[in-house]
Target: Phosphoribosylaminoimidazole-succinocarboxamide synthase
Amino acid sequence: MARRRQIYEGKAKILYEGPEPGTLIQYFKDDATAFNAQKKGTINGKGVLNNRISEHIFTLLGLIGVPTHFIRRLNMREQLIRQVEIVPIEVMVRNVAAGTLSKRLGIEEGTQLPRTIIEYAYKSDELGDPMITDEHIAAFGWASQEEMHDIADLAIRINDFLCGLFAGIGIRLVDFKLEFGRIWDNDYGRIILADEISPDCCRLWDIKTNEKLDKDRFRRDLGGEAEAYQEVARRLGLLPEGEDSAVLDLEQHRRDRGK
Ligand code: 5GP
Model:
């Protein structure tokens, strides 16, 4: 493989320079981290599954008119994306109490929220992604009021769509995290959805059993992480029935051959 210029390496993905100006290649790793990288591990085949799941979701969102950075999947671990200026804000959308919301407010995990709640965090590993409000975003100029309006509007549309998509395959969308970026047209910055949507950044519970099918399996040492991610991909129709491991075996085979 020709050497490409690496632009950025994050905890779960690497960004390389793309083939054309304004494009990047997003590579999905098997590395898993939690609690601001204090816990580290590997989930075999995670990168392949997240690439596929995120491709599927971003494609569907594009079809309903949500602007995204996704252009196309290139291979099992890489996708071509539009280069954006990342807005330094993580957008959390919550339908059911869980995780830090439950801890902060003492609400039992699994409690249906009376309405969807959107929260913001400042994207900073050093600071541990602290929670912020619109006031901080405006005061420090991380995004304009118009951009925040677009972000909140897109987050709600994405939530409505994803709740339905997952409910249709027996999964409750408890909460998830989104990231947005700006693309510049002349002097006008437009907000588009960036990053990924996968079991790494969503809480997905089986509707009937409440079994966790997401990264909480890793965070909470529940085991069966790869199987849970495969189950999500399988229910989305991305893995042929009974051939889950074959997809991953093929990838392992390629790695073993040093490709
Ligand atoms: P919580 O605030 O409860 O930890 O997370 C809320 C939701 O956002 C969960 O679905 C979680 O997976 C996602 N989330 C929040 N922060 C991050 C992050 O830094 N990385 C990833 N991958 N997901 C996050």
About this structure: The two ends are 8 Å apart (CA to CA). The chain is about 30% helix and 30% strand.
